[in-house]
Amino acid sequence: MHRDEIAVVAMDCEYPDASSPAELWTNALEQRRSFRRIPPQRLAPEYFGTAEDADLISSPVAALLTGYSFDRLAQQVSGQTFRSTDMTQWLALDVVGRVVAKLDGVLGTVPKERVGVIVGNSMGGEFARANTLRLRWPYVARSLATALAAEGVGAAERERLVAATEATYKQSFAEPTSDTLAGGMANVIAGRICNVFDFGGGGYTVDGACSSSLLAVTTGATALVRGEMDIALVGGVDLSIDPYELVGFSRATALAPELMRVYDRRSQGFWPGEGSGFLALMRAEDAERAGVRPLAIISGWGVTSDGAGGTTRPEDEGHTRAIEQACARAGWEPASVDFYEGHGTGTAVGDATELRAIANARGDGARPAWISSVKANIGHTKAAAGIASMMKTIAALDSATIPPATACVDPLPILTDPRSALSITREPRPAPEDREIRAGVSSMGFGGINAHVALRSAGSRTPAPRRRRIDPQDVEVIAFGAVSFANLAVHARETARRLADRSMAEVHDFLVRSGGPGGGFVRGAVLVSGPMDTGAALDRLAALADVATLESPTLIDPVGGVFLGVARPDPEIVLLFPGQAAPVRSSDGFAGRRFGGPRVEGLASPSFPGASTAVAQPAIVRQSLRAARILERLRIAASSAVGHSIGEVAALAWAGALGDEEAVTLAARRGAAMAEFCTEPGGMTDVQTDAATALTLAGDLPLTVAARNGRRRTVLAGPPRRSTRSRCGPGAAASGPRGSVCRMLSTRR
């Protein structure tokens, strides 16, 4: 322990689906996601639109606090003061009160004038901002009167309508009182805490946008080292699910249009969150003398700005310096850190920049390290984000567990590059036992402000409890069984109603507890992957059931993920084994974790489209046969199988004509031969017509029929340039005689 180390001695929080640090940690370990549709009680549907609507919010999804209430009577707060004060102040006060309760007798040994409060917050909260609309009534009244006059409404009628509108307009906003000004000021969040607990060591708010609460940590740590405080209560609070921020993020294209993915090749943005968290900090030597067991030790911290870099776009050089500062203060090399709790907002630019900054700080020869971000669980809580990251990291250090990365299915290349020694883990793993564990927590805020905190384990560790195995999945299946189509439609609509306001994690819980699809020969199912899918898919299923009859064929909407039909006594199941253009993965994902199985060597990432044909062909056969054997273990028995291209080999093995390993060996030899001898790439064109017409379209070009896939589906093959110069031309939209549509096929493998 060096003189400037800081001990974390208590913590508490209120985040989506997590009213304690223990719940937050469990949700991170189990990769639970707290995102839901924003209910109309928070924002009416009229606030949402498309990315092109300048005044509207592009995504209706957020991670929200649900069921939380502040007990003003227990805190002896008058109704007037409560209504005139933004909820950020009450939430922060509540969470700090829980932290203070955990300090037991420690606070009694420290003079109250030596206890300080530092709060990370940006611009107060959404409720005070909303209440300012009441104060803008004169402008609204003038605009309304002008519009009515332009429509020819007489003066007396205008006056009556404006007066009636004023009453309606103002009724939702608290009337200004002597508490209104203080109730909306960000600095009073800390001041109110000091007032309630009689702390005299200084109370103020720091605003570094998304870095605010981590800046509160670094500011508090600095105050302790300088001897300005003996206990620092540091944290953040953010309640800002309102148009001011969300329209701004929409115009910056920062909100995820579909799913929030973090450090993923398909990352497109974040979904917002809200909440509050606080830590109690002491000098490590003081905590030791007081007999307080630290949860973790803060060994170093660094704060930088990006200088001339972008105001809203992070720069890697600035964050690299913050990491280097923190590690230098701790006396470590950045390469010695075991895992990082990243800023990880899920934006393509931000994620790549952050990973590059960490890799640059670590340099060559670093020992392996892992990274994840709690934002994938609770959304981007902005001013309260850094403190949530701290709590997750402290829990990881205390339990000696490396947490998994949520919502990272196809990691960015830097996470699969062995030279970076930086990667993700898909499930919790034990931390090294032969040394102290080191971690880094990062924040990167609008305006170019960077903060990084270096932490280590406190020595003694809390053994990680045995947990049930968790296999997170990004798709949920909602299945129904009913005695009639009408009955199924009723069940689907009722389920849609019950799930309308639930988070992704709560939808999973509901399905686990619901006891299965129920009886009946009419069957339906929907596949949903996010909070925006559930209601639409269930409504679509109900609409199909409304018009279905027992004579109807099975109705399948693969794009919408909707299935409806009638159970047969002896259903025929046919397997289709894919060809060599199928995706190649280094492991079997969920099935591999559940049933075990080997990894496929030679791939640079879990999903690698650039795999050579020599690697791809045996990998595809192996993963196809693994999937078939898993289905058999689940007692899903197929009666026949069809194979396409290399899938024919898998089909032969499934039928017993080849052993599984024989099939993989055959595929490996086939792939090796093709890689060795097929050095000149060929071209293939899918023509939506019969073979004779396809050859007529080809004219005198050296093209041959490679496959007859149907009466009006033919594949022509030949030299790549020749195959695209046929009369049907390149591209899916090109047309030849009789409406024949042509599409170039990938021949990469």
Keywords:
single chain, 749 residues, alpha+beta, Peroxisomal Thiolase, Chain A, domain 1, Alpha-Beta Plaits, 11-stranded mixed sheet, 18% strand, globular
* Largest sheet entry: 11 strands, mixed
CATH architecture assignment of the largest domain: 3-Layer(aba) Sandwich
**Shape assignment:** globular
Q: CATH topology of the largest domain, which one?
A: Peroxisomal Thiolase, Chain A, domain 1
The radius of gyration computed from the alpha-carbon positions, rounded to a whole number of angstroms, is 30 Å
Question: How do the strands line up in the largest sheet?
Answer: 5-4-6-7-1-8-15-14-9-10-12
Mean pLDDT level: 89
Q: Give a count of the beta strands, DSSP E runs of length 2 or more.
A: 26
Q: Into which percent range does the helicity of residues fall?
A: 25-40%
Secondary structure category: alpha+beta
Low-confidence stretches: 600-609, 729-739
How many helices? The count is 24
CATH superfamily of the largest domain: Thiolase/Chalcone synthase
End-to-end distance = 57 Å
Protein name: Ketosynthase family 3 (KS3) domain-containing protein
Domain Ketosynthase family 3 (KS3): 3-457
Region (Disordered): 718-749
GO molecular function: fatty acid synthase activity
